Amino acid sequence: MPKNVFRTAVVASVAVLALPLTPASPATAPTAVAAATDSFYAYDGAEPLSSYAPGDVLKTRTLTYHLTDLSQGRRATQILYRSTDAQGRPVANVTSVVHSGSGDGTRVVLLNSAYDSLDPEDGPSRGIAGTGSVFAPEELLLGQLLDRGYDVILTDTEGQDAHFAAGPEYGRLTLDSIRAATRAPQTGFGSATRFGLMGYSGGAIATHWAAVLAPGYAPDVNKKLVGFAEGGLLVDPAANLRYVGGSTSWAGIIPMALIGISRSYDVDFTPYLNSYGVETLAKLRKASPLDVLLGQYKGLTWQKLAKPEYADPASVPEFVEQVNKLNLGQAPTPTIPGYIVQGDNGPLAGTFSNIPGIGSGDGVMVSGDVRSLARQYCARGNTSIAYEQHELLAHGGTFPVWKYPALDWIDDRFDGRTPPSSCGRIPAGNSLAPVSPATR
Length: 440
Fold this sequence. Notes:
- With about 450 residues, the chain is of the alpha/beta class.
- The chain has twelve helices and nine strands.
- A nine-stranded mixed β-sheet has the order 1-2-3-5-4-6-7-8-9, with helices on both faces.
- It starts with about 55 loop residues before the first strand and ends in a 26-residue tail after the last helix.
């Protein structure tokens, strides 16, 4: 049975860490690991992939998807499309459109999954195709969206090589999946179709990066977006690295993120790791959060993985360069309305950290970072930002509390109602300034 079947709402990403050495040439595309087991995933056209525009359709297929919470099957269109990876290289990726059967094709929600895995076989497209399983809490949310008449897009936001935690790549894959769904005639989407973005935790990474990159990377898509609804957002990876260090449940995310980000940017960080660090990363190279949330890495910190001379990750210039690329505080401001929810009871999830300048969080995500990001958007002119913080809830418990208001918020955006705003009432947060290199 696929391991995704056993996941719970607490499975999410991520403290992000990257230690690049020598980036690969932009002209060299990564190997599609997932293509080995299903020929649909492999681009086998005569023309080079670079000859296609982002969002161009390469293949399609139609499936019947049987939801676990619904007796009837739903028609699903899967699309292999051209997109762009973390290093700007052309890649082929898969997205899935699940059709409501009751809508008119004008209301579509991007439900971005927190499948958060280092195994390409765990992408949501595999579950829809019947060879894996969609993240269970999100499958229930999917059913609710379909029942409300929305067609739903679920994209393999980590790409075909499981580039876990690579936020900008998540965003581009998401935006290009909208382009592909619009260009594939099987979906029935047209000029009147509008799109909403939804995601929690790892899904929030894709949702938020899509929202901030859309004006520059995909202005054609941006004008069709009605808004983004998200919870449990990763903002500043360097802060998350420190925050989850020593956690009784979330600390194992540190090596997972190391693997994902190094994979995304083609780097080798083993020179910075001690023998335990090298052994741990080798063990987790195809892991999901299920593999690290059961106490195996209780109390893990960066310092326990690194050589003594690299006890401060900021002493590695390559780390500083990459982690700053992943800081949403340094990214553009979205132009669409947003609904952002954050838990703040980290001790409930086994994270007792309260480091000066970082403060509290939900066990894996830092609340002060999320508040600062929302305040930044308000200050830059996007006043259609609603923010909620739940002091008594940890990361997993905030998901169901976020879900139902998020559904109603999305409904209101499609119905053209004025978006609510928290601007002027969001408490102060943390600095989102880039990390400065430290000397050893």
